[in-house]
């Protein structure tokens, strides 16, 4: 590919950068006000995870991409959590549980100026049980005089406490080095050991769309009790369910069950749980309540699955309740509100009557197929050559930027790198994506296109 100014190292570098598989997941957990959001801000280097002194602020953005020393990972921020009816211990435990479940490694933040509290001890027990690698962050060590506070946290039995000032940046570099040591190169639970194992499905959607009903229906038994509040026994987290002669793993089914503590902070928990499930899955089956208007919350869930790069199926549930008029408006809403997943296979189901349940598996299989598709470089470039000839980029400032060469750097989801002779406008990028989809399918999968411009 040493054509038109790109040498092979440019190409290889770009492929390596873009073609990375799914990223390992780091969760930042701890009590409220220990500085989790401040730390997340510091790590991602932006002011995106808004720090609020005011409690009870609901945020639904819970995952971020981060990079340290050339390694990329996903960061799960649990800072948007609010205390609920069950009190602080139960809330922190629930929050930590979701986050730990989704993570490959955990940063446990403790306020060193306060020292270890009973709640911190309770989280330590959860961490022990989960067995995930833990980096202990002794936060609010703003200067040398605070070091002794950090040392006291050896008592938690989690190994070396890393003295950090999330606010000023002190010690965060050393702590992140320890994080990289703890974090696997690739997400283990998602794509390592399970290769060749059952496919992992996350059944997601806002409360009351019918997730537990659908799970019941496909499991063909009352495995998940609809509307029941969680009892004292621990719910199963992942369930193996046979569908269409194939065994699938439905991840995070415990999260599908309604919980007492979901009464408050429900939106935030729901987002965290959804993010956790999506991280663990290959396929997201997004449930939409067809009897109601498509909401912003539905769209956020869709965005979460798209951004996570999962294979996606959209299931419109409660189809049994639809009359002619609602069906008409639903189609209009889908066109306008869910355009971002217009490429996803769609099924119109009823968890209540069992309508079209048999269409779910073929839709999932289609989505996985798109997600794993690899286009050979020769075919891709023949296709690009045709497009560039028939639909060239508009001339800008007397120049015509051209796509010179492209390659698919990765799959799951498909990622492309295109090399260009000038800046490629957003409209033309969208056009390229559309044409790629027309040509090669990619049904049910997001695709990433990154464009490198020759200097
Ligand atoms: P979260 O609830 O755990 O996400 O905590 P926040 O990140 O919202 O921080 C809670 C409060 O502690 C805020 O007022 C922060 O400015 C403050 N804070 C966070 N990190 C530090 C730190 O390293 N040193 C000091 N002195 N204050 C901090
Ligand atoms: P979840 O919160 O997403 O798990 O939703 P649930 O499974 O608890 O369902 C919420 C409510 O919708 C319950 O009252 C269900 O009986 C009802 N429901 C679920 N699926 C259907 C369906 O396909 N048709 C109808 N008519 N009702 C449904």
UniProtKB/TrEMBL annotation:
Keyword hit for Kinase: no
Name of the coding gene: der
Organism per entry: Streptomyces anatolicus
Function (record text): GTPase that plays an essential role in the late steps of ribosome biogenesis.
Protein name: GTPase Der
InterPro entries hit by this protein: AAA+_ATPase, G_ENGA, GTP-bd, GTPase_Der, KH_dom-like, KH_dom-like_a/b, P-loop_NTPase, Small_GTP-bd
Annotated GTP 2 binding sites: 205-212, 252-256, 317-320
NCBIfam families from the UniProt entry: GTPase_EngA (TIGR03594), PRK03003.1 (NF002828), small_GTP (TIGR00231)
UniProt key word Nucleotide-binding: yes
Keywords: GTP-binding, Nucleotide-binding, Repeat, Ribosome biogenesis
Homology family: Belongs to the TRAFAC class TrmE-Era-EngA-EngB-Septin-like GTPase superfamily. EngA (Der) GTPase family.
Residue stretches making up the EngA-type G domain: 24-187, 199-372
Subunit structure: Associates with the 50S ribosomal subunit.
Domain of life: Bacteria
Positions with a binding annotation for GTP 1: 30-37, 77-81, 139-142
Lineage: Bacteria, Bacillati, Actinomycetota, Actinomycetes, Kitasatosporales
